[in-house]
Request: fold
Amino acid sequence: MSQLTNAAVPVRQDVIDIEQKFIRQLAAPGPSLNGKERLAVATAARHGSMGDNELHGLANHLYASPSTVTEEHVRAAADSGGEPQTIEVIGIVSRLSAIDRIHQVLDVDLEPLPQSLPGVPTGKIAEDLKRRRCHVPMPPGPIPV
Reply:
């Protein structure tokens, strides 16, 4: 059950459903990280960098202060962990921080992180990625603004 059900104001069910779907997906293998690695990224984002892992450092920096993340931060993570992993970290943290900010605004506890699910990364990584006006390679087509 979502912590959002404890909010002082009603939260639409579709918002709760989307949140719960993301939390479940977080525990499963992704394109380049397994479930345990994805949860470690989420933990690092919420609670600070773990050791000298550049991906975890990027996760925490992006979560805590997204407007100060520079191309140099992203390049350091990509050079250390790889571009697919860096892009996956950015996606995880972007969605997690949006969910967590909703919880904070509504003054409810953050959603607990689940236990990781077994399995290896799917390897399903977008093709034809190119560096454009972003810090990471993007697929062809318009860049959302």
In short: The first helix runs from residue 13 to 26.
